[in-house]
Amino acid sequence: MAKKAMEDYLAEIKEGNVAARVKSLEVAAMRQARVKQKKISGVLFPFPICGCSIPDSDGVVFQAMLPCDGMIVKAAVDVEGVEKIEGGATLQVELEVENDMYVRDMPVKKPRVFFDPELPVMAGTKIKVRVTSGNVEGLVWVSFLFVPEISNAKVRKILAEDT
């Protein structure tokens, strides 16, 4: 817009011309729409829950309790010091919440195995892993990746310009 046209346009807005005010708002909205918006994505990292033990008299090698709702997305088991588990073994995973129990048997033929259980869990869920069959006498390592529900995440507000 030329300088004279801009002055006339601004004068019309000041005088209270409704059409000029609407046009002014439309121009402002179009300019704002062209402004590149910055978006920030947050990531909720899973955290490991792990431990190791020699099987006790009941075969238990791992016990833990989860503090909040979430999901177990990965699991790994490693029997230390053996090349092969002769005849295989069975690991039993128990998830207990209040009076409900979920039990899953997992056959294991190799000393190191990985699982993708994708198991939803609730706050207070107790996890117990035990060896129910097979000759496993060494140290057994157990690890889970647990992703808490988003409602349990701490929120930190930052400005897009701070990134």
What would you note in describing this structure?
- By secondary structure, the chain is α+β, with helices and mostly antiparallel strands.
- It has 2 domains: 3-34, no CATH class; 47-152, Sandwich (Jelly Rolls).
- The protein has helices spanning 3-15, 18-34, and strands at residues 47-53, 60-65, 70-79, 89-97, 100-108, 112-115, 119-121, 126-133, 140-148.
- Strands 1, 3, 6, 7 and 9 form a 5-stranded antiparallel β-sheet that branches. A 4-stranded antiparallel β-sheet has the order 2-8-4-5, with no helix packed on it.
- A hairpin with a 2-residue loop joins strand 4 (89-97) and strand 5.
- The mean pLDDT is 83.
Largest sheet: 5 strands, antiparallel
Would you tell me which CATH topology of the largest domain applies?
Jelly Rolls
In helices, the fraction of residues equals 10-25%
Level-2 CATH architecture of the largest domain = Sandwich
Beta percentage is: 35-45%
How many discrete structural domains? Answer: 2
CA(first)-CA(last) distance: 36 Å
Q: Provide the gyration radius in Å.
A: 30 Å
H/I helix tally: 2
CATH class categorisation of the largest domain: Mainly Beta
SSE layout:
Blueprint: H1 3-15, H2 18-34, E1 47-53, E2 60-65, E3 70-79, E4 89-97, E5 100-108, E6 112-115, E7 119-121, E8 126-133, E9 140-148
Antiparallel strand pairs: 1-9, 2-8, 3-6, 3-7, 3-9, 4-5, 4-8
Summed up:
Helices cover 18% and strands 40% of the residues. With 163 residues, it is an alpha+beta fold. The protein folds into two domains: 3-34, no CATH class; 47-152, Jelly Rolls.
